Amino acid sequence: xxxxxxxxxxxxxxxxxxxxxxxxxxxxxxxxxxxxxxxxxxxxxxxxxxxxxxxxxxxxxxxxxxxxxxxxxxxxxxxxxxxxxxxxxxxxxxxxxxxxxxxxxxxxxxxxxxxxxxxxxxxxxxxxxxxxxxxxxxxxxxxxxxxxxxxxxxxxxxxxxxxxxxxxxxxxxxxxxxxxxxxxxxxxxxxxxxxxxxxxxxxxxxxxxxxxxxxxxxxxxxxxxxxxxxxxxxxxxxxxxxxxxxxxxxxxxxxxxxxxxxxxxxxxxxxxxxxxxxxxxxxxxxxxxxxxxxxxxxxxxxxxxxxxxxxxxxxxxxxxxxxxxxxxxxxxxxxxxxxxxxxxxxxxxxxxxxxxxxxxxxxxxxxxx
Length: 369
What we know:
Blueprint: H1 3-7, E1 10-13, H2 21-29, E2 34-37, H3 45-57, E3 69-72, E4 74-76, E5 79-80, H4 92-98, H5 101-117, E6 122-123, H6 148-164, E7 168-174, H7 196-201, H8 205-211, E8 217-220, H9 238-248, E9 254-259, H10 263-266, H11 274-281, E10 285-288, H12 294-307, H13 313-330, H14 339-346, H15 349-359
Parallel strand pairs: 1-2, 1-10, 2-3, 3-6, 6-7, 7-8, 8-9, 9-10
Antiparallel strand pairs: 4-5
């Protein structure tokens, strides 16, 4: 499998508010699948519209000619990269408190229209972790509820809302981050007492439900469950990614890692081992968010692993095919809005009103039965 095809298995961050010549060259030459934008990349609606259009224009120069994934973390609440004049959405806990699937669908559909209008096509949302540990500040109000069935019901409505608005939803963090105390950005959380029976009856309940709601993308958690896999954290675990996820739960779509530069992994494993092991274990795509030196390193490491026989080219081809099929199915026909059209979408009063109703804990009058 050549370097170009391997590029379609990676999403990477950018350094600033516009593309550098090095980034343009790297994206095109390596046929990288897509990018993720953070606050450092976003200054204003005009700037982000131009940036996303420039990124997408480069796709014509790539070997595959396929559109780029342009992704962002927009959950609502404290995880929101797009600020005013984009609609400011409350955290998911507010949706959980109201407990309306109609409202959850409308929330995601409305946010999705704003994202899609500005050229985004993936949102790393919803967070479908169940808040089983009230001291878990990493998740906290990012969780819809402490009740597995309620999280399952509302998160599947959110996924359908994103689908309706031409946004690929990415549910996270498989198999559940709601019971941890350690932030995986800083260290590796270890869930000493959670066994498969516990996960099946609690944490995995929402995942089973969203898989039936046309979920196209799923993100792994960097957490270790010694009673299930004593050797590997989930992102590196064939038990979790191949047996539990693929075989037992029947998930057939794309699996992406959380950021591979997080200290949960980088403190314990060599940087060139990390992307190779994630792909060996069953991830389809690898994610690098911040350090610009990591994507080139990762592609080289993966290429070397193919030559050395550590990675199965046939398995990589299947991953590549999943990515290509999703792009052809979900990205090819999405219309590109001009800046003036996109600006009208984010200035709609009904969007602000919807967000205010959710923040206030009330069901909007037009959604009341």
